[in-house]
Automatic annotation (TrEMBL):
One of its GO terms (molecular function) is dipeptidyl-peptidase activity. Gene3D superfamilies: alpha-amino acid ester hydrolase ( Helical cap domain) (1.10.3020.10), alpha/beta hydrolase (3.40.50.1820), Galactose-binding domain-like (2.60.120.260). SMART domains: PepX_C. Pfam families: Peptidase_S15 (PF02129), PepX_C (PF08530). Residues 343-600 form the Xaa-Pro dipeptidyl-peptidase C-terminal domain. Keywords: Hydrolase. InterPro entries: AB_hydrolase_fold (IPR029058), CocE/Ser_esterase (IPR005674), Galactose-bd-like_sf (IPR008979), Xaa-Pro-like_dom (IPR000383), Xaa-Pro_dipept_C (IPR013736). This is CocE/NonD family hydrolase.
């Protein structure tokens, strides 16, 4: 009857006789002695199997979260298709995160001017692969690497000086250039959601908290805080070394240039067969895969490197993708791609006797036609010929040049244009994932949003490539941002899906911080009341505007709180803008002359 002692035993092991796999936690030593926590799942009875490796800052143990006797059910959704007994699955915590030793450096730059140590994620990947092929007896000595977003970035780093056993790779939505167009900034405009990410990632080795909120609506929460710098100070982010570095480099200086992965892969091009993959509406890393792939193609490596753009939100490749918001696809486009392309592509390089699985140079979904399209020679270049679609009088849009004129609006930083219909809850994943396909009618009647549209199209307009915004504008301020959206306006009635009648679907949108209009590295104030050109690239598309639809271009100066507000008065560093720096400005968009504002479209088959 006595109940004393310790009911918790220290050496209990779960009996795994009925499991179809063996799971091991190991610490793998790197060349400097630091050990990295690694989870290895080996199908029972396996021999001569390839290894699929993912390196992550997001908790390696969390990739096999379920205590199931079946490997397929034990792993997370992104790995289910790989867990059929034909791969050894390996997840590793990168340095300093979760179970790994060492210091964590946010997207650690490669050895060199920004990293004077002897290790980086290239050497850590190399040392890990070396250990795995020598110590996992069931392996056939061949490794593939995969991972999305940050984990896509770790794949790209492994490719810079790959271990000979690394035979194939797939960076999925990799973060490639945090300043130009991935997570941190877009063309110099800072993305406020990073503040939550920074406390989550850099206040603990595990998972830290997000920022405290005053209310349900993030529009009000961020507006209340003032500048990004003020919000960061209020919540203690100014103590984080990476925040200090980031805010000390608001422009595209050497700090950013030296850690841009597209520049690095161009300097160390790889012949390892690689699929560079991202979402068409990738709300976090829409820049990376396309630009890294373009850099490799330019270097003559377009045969072994493939570009894939699916009709997906960020990382949706690892989940089901039958639809994106209201857009419905034919079947599960992510599962089908994984099963019919990605895995056979990996198999051919990793498994003896696997059939060849050639892939086209690029595979890009056409969301309007609802199918994949293969491209034997996909080319996007800044100098490519594009067809201008001009802004015209009376809010018109057309391929003919317009007469001189302008349209004005008052941009008030106290009332920025929301990126989602309010309220915008902080933790609503679904709304964040689908914001890039949201119907833009919720803002098109605002006085500070200009909406130009073509007449109803009588012929299809097919785009293949990257459109450019080429806007001529003057402002009464000395600073300002330009947001340009290319939109497909559905017919007013749409019988096959009635709720899509009149829908304004963004196809490509982006922002330019006006101080960088002439140089990303060398900002300059905007001369007040003088017409300036604001030219910038929009995300890559493969899209058909169908007859019966219209093309719309929307222009506005804020997109909040995705992007921090521009005070519209030139200050040296917007992170430190004071409340009194924020001022209204009148923006006048020109058409015809002195500048013919347009979006430059990569139209094919005209
Ligand atoms: N987009 C996230 C990220 C990547 C790289 C750096 C910071 C954030 C992610 O989903 O991992």
């Amino acid at each position: 009857m006595v109940q004393t002692g310790n009911d918790i035993v220290s050496d209990w092991q779960q009996p795994e006789d009925n499991f179809d796999y063996v799971k091991k936690d190991v610490m793998i030593p790197m060349r400097d002695g630091v050990k990295l926590h690694t989870v290895i799942m080996i199908p029972k009875g396996a021999h001569d199997l390839p290894i699929l490796l993912e390196r992550t800052p997001y908790n390696a143990s969390g990739f096999a979260p379920n205590n199931s006797p079946h490997m397929k059910d034990a792993v997370w959704s992104g790995d289910t298709d790989w867990a059929d007994g034909s791969y050894i699955l390996v997840w590793q915590d990168i340095r300093g995160k979760y179970g790994s030793e060492g210091d964590y450096v946010m997207v650690r730059p490669p050895r060199g001017p920004l990293n004077p140590t002897k290790t980086d994620d290239t050497t850590d990947a190399y040392d890990t692969i070396d250990w795995l092929v020598k110590n996992v007896d069931q392996s056939n000595g061949r490794v593939g690497m995969i991972g999305s977003s940050y984990d896509g970035w770790t794949v790209t780093m492994a490719l810079l000086d790959p271990h000979p056993a690394l035979k194939v790779a797939a960076p999925e939505s990799p973060m490639v250039d945090g300043w130009m167009g991935d997570d941190w900034f877009h063309n110099g405009a800072f993305r406020l959601g990073n503040l939550d990410y920074f406390t989550g990632q850099m206040t603990q080795a595990g998972s830290g908290p997000s920022l405290p909120r005053w209310g349900y609506d993030d529009y009000s929460n961020f507006l209340r805080a003032g500048s990004a710098g003020a919000m960061a100070r209020e919540h203690g982010l100014d103590k984080l070394p990476f925040w200090q570095r980031l805010t000390a480099h608001p422009a595209y200086d050497a700090f950013w240039q030296l850690q841009a992965v597209d520049k690095m892969v161009a300097a160390h091009p790889t012949n390892i067969p690689t699929i560079w993959l991202q979402g068409f509406w990738d709300q976090e890393d829409i820049y990376g895969a396309t630009h890294a792939w373009e850099a490799l193609k330019k270097k003559g490596y377009g045969d072994t490197n493939h570009l894939v753009i699916g009709p997906w939100w960020h990382s949706q490749i690892n989940r089901s993708a039958e639809h994106l918001g209201p857009l419905k696809w034919k079947g599960d486009t992510a599962r089908d791609f994984r099963q019919q392309e990605l895995i056979p592509f990996f198999n051919q390089y990793l498994r003896d006797g696997a059939p060849a699985h050639p892939m086209p140079q690029a595979m890009i979904y056409n969301p309007a036609e609802n199918h994949w399209q293969d491209f034997a020679n996909w080319t996007v270049s800044d100098k490519q010929q594009r067809t201008p679609l001009y802004l015209q009088a009376d809010m018109g849009l057309g391929f003919g040049k317009a007469a001189a004129g302008e349209d004005s609006y008052v941009s008030d930083p106290a009332k920025p244009v929301p990126y989602l219909q309010r309220p915008i809850p902080a933790d609503n994943e679904d709304r964040w994932r689908t914001w890039l396909v949201q119907d833009q009618r919720f803002v098109s009647d605002r006085q500070d949003v200009l909406s130009y549209q073509t007449p109803v199209l009588t012929k299809a307009v097919k785009l293949e490539g990257a459109p450019f915004a080429d806007i001529f504008a003057k402002t009464t301020g000395t600073a300002g941002d330009f947001v340009v959206k290319l939109i497909d306006v559905y017919p007013p009635t749409y019988p096959e899906q009635p709720e899509m009648g009149g829908y304004q679907l963004p196809i490509a949108l982006d922002i330019l911080r006006g101080r960088y209009r002439n140089s990303f590295s060398d900002p300059s104030p905007i001369p007040a009341n003088k017409v300036q050109e604001y030219k910038f690239r929009l995300p890559t598309v493969n899209y058909t505007f169908k007859p019966g639809h219209r093309i719309m271009v929307q222009i506005q100066s804020t997109l909040f709180p995705v992007y921090d507000r521009n005070p519209q008065k030139y200050v040296p560093n917007i992170f430190h803008a004071k409340p009194s720096d924020y001022q209204k400005a009148t923006i006048s968009i020109q058409h015809g002359a002195p500048g013919a504002s347009a979006v430059l479209l990569p139209v094919v088959g005209q």
